[in-house]
Prior knowledge:
By secondary structure, the chain is α/β, with parallel strands linked by helices. The protein has a domain at 62-149. 45% of the residues lie in helices and 8% in strands. It has helices spanning 16-43, 63-80, 87-91, 97-105, 107-112, 115-149, 153-168, 200-213, 228-240, 260-280, 288-296, 311-314, 335-338, 373-376, 398-401, 406-419, 430-436, 460-465, 484-491, 499-503; strands at 191-196, 220-226, 247-252, 320-324, 328-330, 347-349, 393-397, 441-443, 468-470. The protein has a 7-stranded mixed beta sheet. A two-stranded antiparallel sheet has the order 5-9. The longest helix has 35 residues, at 115-149. It is elongated and about 135 Å long. Mean pLDDT is 82; it is low at 1-7. It holds the Pfam family Glyco_transf_8. It comes from Ananas comosus. This is Hexosyltransferase. Belongs to the glycosyltransferase 8 family.
Amino acid sequence: MKVVKGTNRRYPYRSLIPTALLLGILLPFVFIRSAFLALEAGATLCPSISCVQWTRFLWGSDPSLDLMKELRRAYMDETMGGSHIDPANLEAAPESLDDLIVEMGSSSSYEHFDIKMFVLKTKAMLLKMDQKVQTAKLRALYYRRLASIGIPKSMHCLNLRMAEEYSVNAAGRSSLPPPEYASRLTNSLYLHIALITDNVLAAAVAVSSTLKSSANPSKIVFHIVTDKKTYNSMHAWFALHPTFPGILEVKGLHQFDWPPRVNALIMRTVDEIHKSSFNFDVYNGIDKEYRRLEALKPSTLSILNYMKIHLPQLFPKLDRVIVLDDDVVVRKELNGLWDLNLKGNVVGAVGLQESDGFCGERELGDYLNYSNPILSSPSLGIHRNQCAWSWGVNVFDLKAWRRTDITQTYQFWLRKNRESEFMLWQMGSLPPALIAFNGRVHHIEPSWHLSGLGWHKPDPDLIESSAVLHFSGPGKPWLEIGSPELRQIWRAYLNSSDEFLRSCRIVE
């Protein structure tokens, strides 16, 4: 049998050239693809070469999308599982994203790293950062509140100087008004304006601006009601700075001689404020930080701030009175407001519904908590969208008031709010007045009262057209935090040459 020998197959030399070219193309691609996979593994905080998914060498999904899906799945597992971050872990959480990256990139974290741990650390970091933001906001609010209620050193100086003048200077104790003008205090032919305040400087500006804006100041009678601690300073200021031809009296609450029945009525309000003052810090139903802020606000639990509800008792011989807050500047004559026909109502105020159907001020729902069934009851006769009104400048028909039970109703709601653990409204004198005066308020033109100047700067045209500018809000004009332009309007009524104001550096 003949054996056929196979011939040796030889590759021609010229075939090596295409092979080399092909390898020259493929090998760089393999190297670059391998490098990218290694980088992806490093980006996912995985140090092991096993993290490189070789099945995705040529074709693979977007690793960022895969990571996002895995993170979302881990987050949902944690959320559905109701996991709770331990306070110790929260305290140990990274302060920032940079700190988190450094921590997760450390060798110790590599050894125990998984997606669940990453999600937990991220949640703890975000929660810790949110708590820091909330704390910073609260601290800013707290400091602003302190700044808004604080009494500047210059005003303390003025009060002390006036108290000293009352003690050592006979002129500072002179009668207000002079005896020959005392009859005007109860004469209905004069325009009677009341201020209930313990702020000497603010009262001085309110009185000065009213007199300067009046064409006939001799027809104006001011009634300033203050407390015992401020009486000497207030009396001395106006005794040494006469308002003639206008007439002015200063009276402390301790100087009123009420009959027993009237005294008992007023003491019910005083006792209720004292109880509220005590309970306001005790009830757990109110946020602790809110209680701290409100307790610092003088008007919240100030007896003077609630004395407006006793105007008929404070001025038993008057039938009508205009009441100004002390943080106002009067720019136009108030005769038109005094002569206003209230059409049987008790109080005239800005803020009720305008002709276009919108509220001039805020709504009752902005002051009262209508989620409480006590206030949402239809029998009460007030609703959330009803227009509210405000203090600042009001005209009262005291004769009509005496025929009502407004004061008793006000006291009733003060007590109800305290008994409800202050859940009907935030502490203040206006909310119970909105209920007590309901149905007895007469709308007056908005041009009589421009409020909110302690919050923002209104349109210049509104300032020019308004009779009374009210610095309601934290930015009082005697504080540095107030608007410089608006403060200048207020300061224009201070006498820059007055020795007391200059010595206390109130004016330069």
